[in-house]
Amino acid sequence: MTDLTGKQSLIAVVQMTATSNKLENFAITKKHIEEASSLGAKVVFLPEACDYIADSHAQSLELAENMDGLLMKSYSELAVKNGIWISVGGFHNKCSSIDKMYNTHVIINSDGQIAGRYDKAHLFDVEIPEKKIKLKESDNTEKGGSIASPVDSPVGKIGLGICYDVRFPEFSLSLARMGADIITYPSAFTVTTGLAHWESLLRARAIETQCFVVAAAQTGIHNSKRSSYGHAMVIDPWGTVIAQCREGTSLALAAVDLEYLRKVRREMPVFTHRRQDVYRLPPCVSRILPLPPDEVTFSFGQVTIKGWAVFYQSRHSLAFVNRKCVVPGHVLVMPLKPTRRIPDMQPDELSDLFLTAQRVQRGMELFHGVSSSNVAVQDGPDAGQSIQHVHVHILPRRPKDFKENDQIYDELNNHDKGPNVDWRQEEDMKKEASELRLFFATL
Questions:
Q1: What confidence tens digit (pLDDT) does each residue in 36-90 have?
Q2: 92 within 8 A of 51, measured Cβ to Cβ
């Protein structure tokens, strides 16, 4: 076991050559997880596509699992058995209702629980015919829609990225601004781009964010069409490579020293010196937050929303089931802060509201098996607003659900007005909210 000071924590980074054989791939990662635990590591980081690298798009879709599948259960059992946190750096996460997958990074804690999840936001689409290069992740992968909040772990707050995300400094700076101590880029870099850019990109991200950067990696020949660069490594906040895997399947250890991180930030205070008056990062929003207890209430204009009605909550917004639906699946998204009109909202609140609305729209379409929605805001009384609190209507649409398509706007304007509104029963609303909570937890 490596000798550490009281302020240091040991981590392990894995390098492997995945193939289309899921059982063999799992056996390799299992061996490294057990080795990392025996050496005293608190967290072990696995590379992107640690579940498999398929021989074709069709095979990739066929082999994919969802979050409740055998793979995640097996990793949860390994985490408990070995008393270690596991970063499953990227697995093929089957979408519920579309013929695609998410590339999902999952953090499992030592109790076997999912502590964090991130769906890859930047998809690698490159086609260079003269070099016979064609890599189009978007052919079978759905892009993620948000940055996940850094995960509290025994080694610090871990920010989740995947592979191609490393080329986007706004992404890593957003994670640092959200409190990350460590930023992860589990990867399957091509040999060509790896030789040119791999270490330079990782060191740049570490230097500019003043975070530890951990990059588990695929290496070697996966099949006749695919090879990866390898060189899994860990970089400290000063930009120094402090650990790197040898060639082939291997594991490397590194000490994460959060006191050193604070020293670097104190002596080179770039975040303090940023000119927010001259430029600024766009507001970043986090993934779903823990849902409120059933008995909690939220102000919504002249009325209150009970906690049991909420099925999605972010930093500044929440989504909840509706007392009176224009169409099945008609739900609402509102800012947590009581705000009458959009012009009254702060930039962070506004960004969070509409990014939350986007994620809720996508989820509701998947849940109801549709591909169209109306998304509407009635901003002020003359626009039809009856509740004096900004809110976004999400209305999943089906073919011919109205005789004239635009009739929905008349219905939206009048559906909750008048003395004889047929409000939904509370039990019906609770049932819908419960089903949506379970569904959104798997997205």
A1: 999 999 999 999 999 999 999 899 999 999 999 999 999 999 999 999 999 999 9
A2: yes
Superfamily grouping for domain 8-273: Carbon-nitrogen hydrolase (3.60.110.10)
Instruction: Write out the residue limits of the CATH 3.30.428.10 domain(s) in the chain.
Output: 297-441
Question: What pTM, to 2 d.p., does this model score?
Answer: 0.71
For the chain, give every residue range classified as CATH 3.60.110.10: 8-273
Annotated binding site for substrate: 322, 378, 393
Q: Which residues are annotated as a binding site?
A: 322, 378, 393
Please say if 391 is a catalytic residue. yes
Place of tokens 């509290």: 152
CATH 3.30.390.10: does it fit domain 297-441?
no
**SS3 string of the chain?**
CCCCCCCEEEEEEEEECCCCCHHHHHHHHHHHHHHHHHCCCCEEECCCCCCCCCCCHHHHHHHCECCCCHHHHHHHHHHHHHCCEEEEEEEEEECCCCCCEEEEEEEECCCCCEEEEEECCCCCEEEEHHHCEEEEHHHCECCCCCCCCCEEECCEEEEECCHHHHHCHHHHHHHHHCCCCEEECCECCCHHHHHHHHHHHHHHHHHHHCCEEEECEEEEEEECCEEEECCCEEECCCCCEEEECCCCCEEEEEEEEHHHHHHHHHHCCHHHHCCCCCCCCCCCCCCCCCCCCCCCEEEECCEEEEHHHEEEECCCEEEEECCCCCCCCCEEEEECCCCCCHHHCCHHHHHHHHHHHHHHHHHHHHHHCCCEEEEECCCCHHHCCCCCCCCEEEEEECCCCCCCCCHHHHHHHHCCCCCCCCCCCHHHHHHHHHHHHHHHHCC
| Alpha-carbon span 62 to 16, nearest angstrom | 22
- Closest Cα partner for 89 from 122, 37, 61, 49? 49
pLDDT in tens, 307-344: 999 999 988 899 999 999 999 999 999 999 999 999 99
pLDDT of residue 393: 96
